[in-house]
Amino acid sequence: QVSLVESGGGLVQAGDSLRLSCVDSGRAFSLLEVAWFRQAPGKEREFVASIRWNGRNINLADSVKGRFNISRENAKSTVFLQMNNLKPEDTALYYCAAGAMDNYVYRYWGQGTQVTVSS
Predict the structure, then answer these.
(1) Separation of alpha carbons 78 and 71, rounded Å
(2) In the 8-state DSSP scheme, what is residue 88?
(3) Angstrom distance (rounded) from CA 97 to CA 76
(4) How far apart (Å, rounded) are the C-alpha atoms in residues 68 and 18?
(5) In this predicted model, what pLDDT tens digit does every residue of 24-78 receive, in sequence order?
C-alpha cells in the first residue's frame, strides 16, 4: 500500500525558495519512480520533475530547469522538490505521484500542497 503525503507549500515572494516533501509510509516507496506535478487554476496538470528509485535518471520540465531540483532519501521514504528563484507562474497545487505505469502516468497520487508566489 502506498499513501503519499505532501508538505512544505506556502505563500512566498518571487525569488524565494521552498522545499516540498513527499512522504510514504509503505515499504515499496524506495523501489518506485516518483514525480511531482502541478496544476494552476484553470490550467491542466503539468509534469514538473521525476526521479527513479535509485536517485538517478532525473527528469525536469523545461520551465523549471536551473531553478528546481528533485532528490530522494529512500531510508526515509521521502522525495524532495527544491524550488529556487520562484516566480508567480509557479503558483499551483503541487502533487506527488509514484509508481510509473507509462510516460507521465503514475499509479499513486497525493492530495497536493499549495504553493503561492506573489510578485
Answers:
(1) 9
(2) G
(3) 16
(4) 10
(5) 977 788 889 999 999 999 999 999 999 999 988 999 999 999 999 999 999 999 9
Closest CA to 100 of 43, 62, 57: 57
Q: Which three cell numbers stand for residue 14?
A: 518571487
Cβ atoms of 30 and 51 closer than 8 Å? no
Strands (E), the chain: 4-7, 10-13, 18-24, 34-39, 46-51, 59-60, 68-73, 78-83, 92-102, 105-109, 113-118
- CB-neighbour burial class of residue 66 (10 A; exposed 0-12, middle 13-18, buried 19+): exposed
> What are 83's strand-pairing partners?
18, 68
